[in-house]
From TrEMBL:
This is Sugar ABC transporter permease. Coiled coil: none annotated. It is found in: Cell membrane. InterPro entries: ABC_transporter_permease, MetI-like, MetI-like_sf. Residues 71-283 form the ABC transmembrane type-1 domain.
């Protein structure tokens, strides 16, 4: 009954192994993605299934309304903050990879913010940034810098810096742990050979450490870029878009669920995806060109 040829058995086994992954991919990845693309060409409100085909009108609206596409300037704060976070995290990773006493305690302390819920973090930093009772203004007053006290969330020139700092504070520990893992994979023999040859600390970092963690650096820059473009939870929970703090994702959420313009929100999601892909390709071409 089961006297099948070797070729038939091979085809059945391959078919059996591939069917479930392909079905799962089609169900949870490709179908939702194609649906999103379709909705972006309609005037769907997000309620019911009544919709009309509007062509590229949603895309024209995105690029013609400054209050939609212009919010990308706020994402720039998170990108610059992410670059700063990557540099500082690499420095701390190098320090905490050395034979520093109590380094595991410092690693844990720096990683804890990452596991905190965003709502809890927002509540914490509301107490930090409060104008009258915030710990930041109280600290400035205590050290004689009372003139530096600010409305950290009320001043339109400072609010996005304040929000970007919270993102740096939260994700710094994760970046540092990833760098520590990469640094620990570098053979100690390389450093010992460099030390015997009389290399300085900077030369060791420049010619051994950086080339060894090049792929991790590339990954972190991609994560920084995508994280900045998709910044949402902390600014939205903290400010709900007030005081010109909308990011592109929070604007998309408002468009879909507050203003019931799901078709336009779908087009914004597609535009964000294309921008992320374009920046990743550009970044790989310019910064991490393969050596021939």
């Amino acid at each position: 009954m089961f006297n099948l040829s070797y070729k038939t058995q091979r085809i059945l086994i391959l078919f059996g192994f591939l069917t479930i992954p392909v079905l799962l991919s089609l169900t949870f990845s490709y179908y939702p993605a194609l649906s999103l693309l379709y909705y972006s060409f309609t005037d769907w409100s997000g309620l019911g299934w009544e919709m009309n085909w509007v062509g590229f009108d949603n895309y024209k609206e995105i690029f013609s309304r400054p209050e939609i596409f212009g919010v990308f300037k706020n994402n720039a704060y998170y990108f610059v903050g992410g670059l700063l976070q990557t540099c500082v995290a690499l420095y701390f990773a190098i320090v905490l990879t050395s034979r520093l006493k109590g380094r595991n305690i410092f690693r844990s302390m720096l990683f804890i913010p990452y596991v905190l819920h965003s709502v809890a973090i927002v509540i914490m930093f509301r107490n930090v940034y409060h104008v009258q009772y915030g710990s930041l203004n109280i600290f400035l007053e205590a050290i004689g810098l009372g003139s530096w006290q600010q409305q950290w969330l009320g001043n339109p020139h400072l609010v996005n810096f304040s929000l970007a700092f919270i993102s740096i504070w939260k994700y710094f520990g994760l970046t540092m742990v990833i760098f520590i893992g990469a640094l620990q994979s570098i053979p100690a023999d390389n450093y010992e050979a460099a030390k015997i040859d009389g290399a300085s600390g900077w030369q060791t970092f420049r010619f051994i450490t950086l080339p060894s963690i090049r792929s991790v650096l590339e990954l972190m820059l991609i994560l920084t870029l995508t994280g900045a473009l998709e910044a949402f939870d902390i600014p939205y929970i903290m400010m709900l878009g007030a005081n010109d703090t909308h990011t592109f994702v929070s604007k998309t959420v408002d468009m879909a669920f507050k203003f019931q313009q799901a078709g336009l929100a779908s087009a914004m999601a597609v535009v964000l995806l294309l921008i992320v892909i374009a920046f990743i390709i550009l970044q790989r071409k310019l910064l991490f060109r393969e050596e021939k």
